[in-house]
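Quick review question:
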């Protein structure tokens, strides 16, 4: 998937994200960049990944988050066969004591 999206524009986007220093900076930038629905979708997927990482079952995740089983399945595939992006973030959040 990375090869399909890799471009100078994507590099610029990611470099821009890496310049953000605070949560408030992130709110401002992402509010300008994305719709509220897009942002809520990103946050929801991250929550699903967190719950899957905690070994929660699909039915409990559906109940807790309201997401479809198709979304849970897609996130699960990314956790198992993806690029370890979720795991990188989770490890770093744990080091900062922002995630159990």
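Suggested answer, residue by residue:
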């Amino acid at each position: 998937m990375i090869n399909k999206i890799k471009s100078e524009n994507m590099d610029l986007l990611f470099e821009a994200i890496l310049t953000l220093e605070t949560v408030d900076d992130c709110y401002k930038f992402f509010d300008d960049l994305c719709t509220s629905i897009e942002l809520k979708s990103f946050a929801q997927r991250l929550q699903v990944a967190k719950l899957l990482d905690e070994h929660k079952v699909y039915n409990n995740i559906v109940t807790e988050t309201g997401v479809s089983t198709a979304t849970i399945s897609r996130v699960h595939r990314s956790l198992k066969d993806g690029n370890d992006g979720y795991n990188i973030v989770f490890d770093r959040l744990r080091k900062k004591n922002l995630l159990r």
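Why it works: The longest helix spans residues 36-53. The radius of gyration is 15 Å.
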